[in-house]
């Protein structure tokens, strides 16, 4: 992944970040031939759509709606930015600290994963937990829309929303594995999921800025209540569950022998530790919870079982996702010094989302057939090159060319927007391929927890950098040095690629 920076094109990415038909039960290969119609163009159009998007089944709908609504949660991104800056007076370093705790629930996905796998509610493993996650997000948005008015209540509401989306994501991940009958179908569902997420982002891109400017933050939070409501409606389309029969040589219960209890206790334990450290304001609390969380997740992976190849791939992706960003400092500077308003930020979000989706469609086949190392290398190199205009904007390079800051930012967004999504699909497919039958949610959740823990590490690094360079709403003098430092750090993860490439070569050797 390219350096996660908060800059013209990357400004859109940072705001989005604070949010990555089974007809009759028959597989695609056994579906009846389409009925001939009078229009010869219809089959051609169908072939074109299948070429762009691949096959789509009705059973995918709950998964796709969940991803769509997560993408559409970006409708609050600009409202949150102004709510932090103007109403709560949160500094860039404080925003990064809040981002750390908001990202942390995503590293506890194994708890929801085990619960969804082995502890059904009212007899349903997936439906009940998808409804529960949507209800949590609904409660968090309702709090923001009404009484949350301090940094503490704002943090609590944001964490509740994050937990809700995390539970929804766990269920969607599990369904993406259960519904697939082949490895190619796993990749297809994951690709469609990313497209649905981007479609959700596109649908609210311009609206996020326009609504924030026209209505203010709290009405936008109220509008966001529609998203979990839509997930709850789609949840009822989840196919009924049938008892699973173990295949020859397959473990009947991959979560037996106390493994499920271990995962739940460990996950709840370090979640409680995080709450205690924050509530008691323990010095270096974020550093402690980050180290403890990482150690416990690694232990769980060893106990549940993971291949060496996937472990190395997970380590490499962790390195890429843990790269710090500039944080909200650049956003604040762009608002205060360049005059970027809510509507223009919405335009950037809209353009970035559309181009990200187009990039994913265009590169869908290459990224599902190329090794992970190949995708990461070229995306990182391209991201480093396209990051230079961000630095140039701060130092007034746009003036050398007689270009206004808004035009410069728009061009940067247009060029760099598609990069952010291209590295995710291969890794998601790799994680899905390791999930054993009967423990799909658990394995996917533990692996994804490690990936999302990297986001907390990124926020921690962002806080360090903003504190070190002293970037605040009142002093942007060192913002340029911060931008350069982030760009250099973003190249370091390339050092992990030779190890990943070697493992990939070994896996291709007979």
The first-to-last residue Cα distance is 30 Å
Computed CA radius of gyration, to the nearest angstrom = 22 Å
As a percent range, the share of helical residues equals over 70%
Apparent shape: globular
User: What structural class is derived from the secondary structure elements?
Assistant: mainly alpha
- Strand content is under 5%
Low-confidence stretches: 1-10, 15-40, 245-253
Please state the average pLDDT score: 77
Number of strands: 0
Sheet with the most strands, sense and barrel status: none
| SSE run | HHHHHHHHHHHHHHHHHHHHHHHHH
Tally the helices: what do you get?
25
Provide a descriptive summary of the structure in words.
- The protein has 510 residues and is mostly helical.
- The chain contains 25 helices and no strands.
- The protein has helices at residues 8-17, 41-53, 61-72, 77-87, 92-103, 109-118, 127-146, 151-178, 183-215, 217-223, 226-235, 259-279, 285-304, 308-321, 328-336, 342-362, 364-369, 372-394, 397-400, 405-416, 419-422, 424-434, 440-469, 479-489, 497-508.
- 71% of the residues lie in helices and 0% in strands.
- Helix 13 runs antiparallel to helix 23 (440-469), helix 18 runs antiparallel to helix 24 (479-489) and helix 18 (372-394) runs antiparallel to helix 25 (497-508).
- Residues 1-10, 15-40 and 245-253 have low confidence and may be disordered.
